[in-house]
Amino acid sequence: METITKFSVLLIGIAGTPKDFLLSLPVLKSCIINDESITKNIAINILQYQYIDDEADPKYIKNIINEIVKINPDLLGFSVYVWNFNIVVKLTLGIKSILPNIQILYGGPEISINDINAGRFNPIPVDFIIYGEGERPFHSFLKRLTLPNAKQEKIDRFAIKKSGKFIFEGAADSNENDLADILQLPSPFLTGVIEPELLKKPEIRANIETQRGCIYRCAYCLYHKHYSKIRYRNPSTIVEEIEYIYKQGISEFRIIDANFFSDKQYAGFILSELIKKDIHMAVFFEVNPESIDKKLADLICQYGALSSKNKVMVGIGIQTLNQKALKSVRRPVNVCFFNRAFELLKKANAIIKTDIILGLPHETKQTYLELIEYIVEKMRYGKNYLSLSLLRVLPGSDMEKIAAKKKLVIDTIDNKHFVYSTPDMPREDMLECLRLNAVAFRFLCSLDLENRIILRDKFFQTKDQLKIPFIYILEHFKNIFSQKLKGSDSD
What we know:
Rossmann fold
């Protein structure tokens, strides 16, 4: 850690999986380190934690609190996501009870204007909030801390708690405070902001950002963030980052973009360079089905053929076959394009992760069963993975307004924003579909690849021998599981 100087800032990242770390905080710091007017007066340190469950052992939470209290920073910042919100609040309460004068800052995707204005954060002992892209507001805030007596300019998308309520200083929702472009955005890997010790953790996966934004405007998603265009980082820097983490011993990386193939030439350059450099790492990225063509599929195949370590998992979402549901959430998926993309990826020997969503507007139990019947057949060969999701109505997404208009009921018990029921799918139907998802998960979604393939093959053999729909088999096991769980508090 950097030696604490005049004013100390400590940023806390809590990742969404047990093998990841947050990229957002090192990116924030890498945008600051070349500004001597800040760094000569302020020390910025980062603590990274892998996924922490809401029901984590209180002793573990207490240990984290003690670790932060021991550092005793002047400003403590949390990057807040849907998966870590409850833990962040627990840490905030615990730390403030010991260090009542510490200043605490929240930022991240879980922060929305509606929630700020509705008072969601008022009861939490947090002092400042940044909404939206954080680099410029954070830089401006630190600049203010170094020059407390200078004339203070209002900071857009920056809120301060006054008399128990958060008040925005400048414009609450303005893209003018975003980075004009991210082409020359400093690399948190190449600048050393991400310390080599972090990359030495067992089975750690590195996240790589190549772009921001998305040309699609899916209502349930935050990737596009209402940007007018996609901003790209320097592709040569991306290649250097991947080569760097490879030399550090990392075996897997994830490209965190909405659609890595949004610019085919850009993505093709990166893949081609990784092939030339003979990089032996597993990779996961998501693409829109319409973006996949034979040339890119061939590059995936070539990269995957470099070694047994080069497993390529590609996420493509169809979400539903119900066109009315897709239209209601602005999700443009053509089944023909999806089928074509699936075949190209299958021939490229990619592991295909297919996403479907339960709980969309206009989805009925019957249309969802038709979706299951269609998508399960796609899992017949290879090492493909079926991702079964329940719709979340994320704060700040356009889905909030659509959910209200379509009268979707949101489960408010745990701050996870899951849909509880819809006019077209009452709770009992939703539970039936969730139970079928649970059975399908056990046959087709296990991370234990060897056993998953064995189970999957037996599943399809049974289907072929009996000549019955997949749903009949899933229903059969659903009933068996329900009997086993009878008397428990499980749905």
